[in-house]
Amino acid sequence: MKIAILGAMREEIEPILEHFGKYSEEKYARNSFYTTKYAGHDIVLAYSKIGKVASAMSATILFERYGADILLFTGVAGALDESLKIGDIIIASKCVQHDAELEAFGHPLGFIPESDHYTLTDPVLNSLAKKVAAELDLELLEGIIASGDQFIAGNEKKMWIKQQFAAAACEMEGASVGQVCAFYAKPFFLLRAISDTASGDAGVLFDEFLESSAKIGAQFLIKMIEKI
Ligand code: SAH
User: Fold this and answer.
1) Which of 4, 147, 166, 177 is most buried as measured by Cβ atoms within 10 A of its Cβ?
2) Hey, CA dihedral for 126, 57, 75, 157, is it positive or negative?
3) Burial of 33 by CB count in 10 Å (0-12 exposed, 13-18 middle, 19+ buried)?
């Protein structure tokens, strides 16, 4: 199987590359794609850069140019659900674009015509994640992840997203990558480790915890790949 691993930032992908040790790099469309073999699989990795556009483009390239069969996303996110603490892991049951707004046409928030309102992740990969978490004695929350081209760092916006979309975490790439996977009918898995609270202190917390939380997500993903 050819497994694509995508993150948004270098910090989210580097721990995985370090673990693999040996890989090739190819530069394409202002992005680097790393290929290697691991646990009997062909692997292609990339970090897309931040936001919905760059991440959707990288995901497309992973399918079109590298022929990925499945796509696993790992990265960090802001917490919306009160039970989530910094360093905790959440997997998306589904994801939605919180900044998509076509209400003038009677569409609900987050809905874009001819796309899914909430993009579903792959149930088989989600079950595998739960199995891995149980083996590691790790608590794993499954919930809705909301994405948009905004870094959420204030209570008002945070509560709005949480209430409008019943979302448990917010970030900037999951739903766009999920949409690409849905269009290609490819299994999609979305994992986030919490880096901040999405409140007023989010920027400071993010800078402090990006690296450690990104590593937690990366290490979990490696364990998952070993079981696919
Ligand atoms: N520090 C970077 C910007 C980081 S943007 C710079 O200065 O260039 C935040 C990244 O982490 C995005 O990739 C997003 O997916 C995720 N993220 C973490 N916490 C977030 C939050 N509170 N709101 C939105 N995205 C968040």
Assistant:
1) 147
2) negative
3) buried
User: Any idea how long the chain is?
Assistant: 228
Where residue 117 falls among pLDDT bands split at 50, 70, 90?
very high
Q: Which residue has the tokens 């590691």?
A: 136
Spatial contact of 126 and 142, defined as CB atoms under 8 Å apart: yes
Q: What is the pLDDT of residue 136?
A: 95
| Residue ranges around ligand 1 (CB below 6 Å) | 8-9, 50, 75-78, 151-153, 170-173, 195-196, 198, 202, 206
- Give the number of the atom of ligand 1 that is nearest the alpha carbon of residue 152: 23
Residues 25-30: contacts with CB under 8 Å, at least 24 apart: 28/61, 28/65, 29/57, 29/61
Q: Name the band, by pLDDT with cuts 50, 70 and 90, for residue 65.
A: very high
